[in-house]
Description:
The chain is mostly beta strands and 294 residues long. 1% of the residues lie in helices and 41% in strands. The strands form seven sheets. The protein has a four-stranded antiparallel β-sheet, with no helix packed on it. A four-stranded antiparallel β-sheet has the order 7-8-9-10, with no helix packed on it.
Amino acid sequence: xxxxxxxxxxxxxxCLGVLTVILVSSAGASGKYQVLHSFNCATDGCGPxxxxxxxxxxxxxxxxxxxxxxxxxxGGHWTLxxxxxxxxxxxxxxxxxxVTFDSSGNLYGTTVNGSTYDLGTAFELTPHAGGWTLxxxxxxxxxxxxxxxxxxxxxxxxxxxxxxxQGSTVFELTPSSGGDWTETVIYGFRAKGDGSTPEAGLxxxxxGNLYGTTxxGGAITKGCEGCGTVFKLSPNSxxxxxxxxxxxxxxxxxxxxxxxxGSVIFDNxGNLYGTTxxGGSSDGCFDGCGTVFx
Length: 294
């Protein structure tokens, strides 16, 4: 079996990082590279790995290993503000994914480690006049609810949050009128058939179905004991039904890929696109250099 698996231990090793931007003209000619901020572990966080998002005023929001930050542009410069520094014992640590806005301007995200069971959290940050207040919506236990959410959450129109855990679950967080949140596992993967270890975020289609990937599970080949899947979750009266759209089937020297760590995206015609970390061409790579698929 030729397979690399990067689990929680490897991903906890984070170092200093820089936040950069490449500006490209509409003609697509040349780009300009600019460092917006260089991180310092002692003051503003380490190793930002998640995506960035904009607010309506053009400020950027993101996460580092133990912080959520905001970058505000002014006169050609960007100023970083730490919105929250996480307490590992009660709030979690290692923010691998970015954050998500709701319609009221609150931010949602996940931590891979820390809190009650040291297995990660889902959280909300609420702005107020003096700063931001953090609420832990759920602490993952490693049981039926999964553990180590590497991906961001997505919201539905009712304000419910959905995400995945490396512990092979897809979860829903539902708010109540009293301010508490209830976590429900809407799907648990069974490894061999439908995939395992979803590490990427989910996306919606117009009909309210969820789409995502699992890094492993699915087809067993000479190249991998479960090469990963692309899946769809459809809501129905009894809960959610999973459909495996594709099982990756990489073998050494073959064209297919495996280990889709990233999420998928739609084009205007409803086709899905994504990437695999390994497989495909073996030129210069022991187990394939990766693929882009449709």
